[in-house]
Task: structure prediction
Amino acid sequence: MYVSVKATPIKSLKELPRTEQFAPGHRLCAGCGIPQVVRFALKAVPDPKVVVNATGCLEVATTIFPYTSWGVPWVHVAFENAAAVASGIEAAFRVLSKKYGTKKPKIIVFGGDGGTFDIGFQALSGALERGHDLIYICYDNEAYMNTGIQRSGATPKGASTTTSPAGKAVPGKMERKKNLIEIAIAHGIKYAATMNPAFPIDMYNKIVKAANTPGPTVLHYFTPCPTGWYFDPSRSIEIARLAVQTRIWPLYEYEDGKIRITVPVKDPKPVEDYFKLQGRFRHLLEPENKWLLDEIKRDIEENWNRLLKLAEQK
Amino acid sequence: MMGKRVGMNGDRAVAFAAKQAKVDVISAYPITPQTIIVETLAEYVNNGELDAAFIPVESEHSALSAAIGASLAGARVFTATSSQGLALMWEILWIAAGLRAPIVMAMGNRALSPNINIHCSHDDAYAARDTGWLQLFAENVQEAYDLTLLAFKIAEDHRVLLPTIVNLDGFILTHAAEGLYVLDDKDVDSFLPPRKPVNPIDPDNPKTYGPLDFTDWYMEHRKIWYDTYPNVPQVIKEAFAEYEKLTGRRYVQIKTFNAEDADKAIVILGSSAGTARYAARKLKEKGQNMAVISLTQYRPFPRKELRTILEKFDVVAVLDRSLSFGSPGNQLFMDVATSLYNAKKKPLLVNVVYGLGGRDFTPRHVEQVYQLMEEVQKRGEAPEEPVWVGLREA
Result:
């Protein structure tokens, strides 16, 4: 019933499969983190596979008619329903493979944070609850970047976006980011993990695990956005790495009921190192916003300690 | 050849037809008065009577989204909805048609809120009229069954490849049991062999479905899509003819009754056509002559055929079971008026509103419409505003 070809983990980037199913010449911005996860996912998940894409940066930048960057079947229907469309494709192939021996592909879904945390949340929850065999990858650039830079449920506390602008009365977004992984886990899925482009082997092997897990899996991918975060595109990976080193973006996985931190961070770097490189956080370093910076630091510490506890319990 | 006679309500008849069509995927969410369809199909699947995937989605929005995915994958796909459910699907209706996904959807026609009302109006059918879906209207339970089988035949035809709605009036047809003839499974198999998809999702032959169009291509793609519709009636006629050979039951795009010598006619959709014909027969006994024109094929709208039929009448009353707020007329009225605009000889047109939210529509109301048409004929002038029949008298 499930794909019989096993995905294989790697130890070094030299072992990356050479096949490219995501063509160069796409129109994603310089310094954007999205293409890395797409290339890696298409390499890590064995054929046959099908990609379903929610409306967003990835969709609009890779399929401008008459061009396409996709060397695998690729389907886009709307913004909020990628998980539902994937459910239908998965169910169809389940039946067609039984009735006519059609090969059953693995379904990979790509959605941005808007299409996952917000408008697509219900469809994702439904698909996870029903147990469809699919890998859901959320590429999270922490705002609605395809429509500009509007806040989403994934925008971190303190960030300035066009719908949560840092003003005199309200200095940016005041709410914490939704915890996608734990919400996903609560559906009873078997595998979920966070990923980051600065840790490519960790990322690749998590996609491999997701590919080898029957049923739904959720991968939450951190992707820097030079346009929306206001930084020099050349510093994209540096910023991504800092997000992990400051404990803002812990790299961990949930597998067989256990949480495991895959990239331990013993001596975290100051969050200021991460904030000062990005225009969206610059106001946090002003003296009048110290209270907010302190609050964010407390949140990060609290989240890290909670994660450590969860990881120790098992 | 007629098949076996059984008793069923409309919902069960539709579900039975979908089962005999050997659908591969059913993706559905329950909503009154369509719920029995979904429940019945779930029973078939769980009892092992139907080898299909039943996706019990979390909303109508996802029901149609999953249906599109399954249809693009090459499966024969069925779903059902009503009213608010259709409204929740609305965005996705366009995409199903534009991606050329031949999904069959039964719609238990029901009024839209407010106020919440579970009974029959045609609000939902009309709400889908510009989305590119084909629409058929059933007049009774037999037709609900037959048209469901026909819908698969039409939708999946390679000259069509468009999603199709089978409308059946909420409660009047969905819940009322009638006698009907059902085909033997083997006859359905010969009429509806397994679907042969065009360009299905195939990892060995990857394609990009639903890309981005800029200003350089969007209009051309719309034109290709739009140009499909003039070809559809021929396919519908062929399907009707083949079905008649198999069952002896004759279907036409437009049903006419008493059209030869009458000078007045009413145009109507759905189950009320039967009531209208009954009343017309009674009127004829009194020497009052009225034609009844009902549409089995609502989208694409049979514009030319209807014009040919209607241009000979003096007065035509168009009956709408819905309102189009702030429009020049209600929905079917606008369709008919537009179709007649360039006719050499034009009847006077009256728009009648009836049966909203399940309000009874009786032969007495038809007689009222007839009398209204007589007055219009005498005056030589039609009322500007729609005339309501069946309103409660304080």
